[in-house]
Design a protein that fits this description.
Elements: E1 8-11, E2 15-18, H1 19-28, H2 31-34, E3 39-40, E4 47-48, H3 50-64
Antiparallel strand pairs: 1-2, 1-3, 3-4
Helix pairs in contact: 1-3
């Protein structure tokens, strides 16, 4: 699933922001809130649940790690 981190999305209960910001904010939520975290976007998939958000965070985090 290749998603544009600069795409504007809605993080439920937190408003409109870029996808990267929504993923980061969802990962900082308290565990109970994290389970309910949902990102709504116009593309497919239209709704990202926390499991998908967590996978995106892990995928994007790997790109930020320098390769020696």
């Amino acid at each position: 699933m290749a998603l544009d981190p600069d795409e504007f999305v809605i993080l439920t209960d937190h408003g409109t922001m870029k996808l990267r910001s929504a993923v980061l904010r969802a990962m900082m939520l308290l565990p109970k809130e994290r389970k309910r975290a949902t990102i709504v976007r116009e593309g497919e998939p239209a709704i990202l649940n926390f499991k998908q958000i967590k996978n995106l965070a892990a995928q994007w985090d790997e790109r930020l790690v320098p390769i020696d």
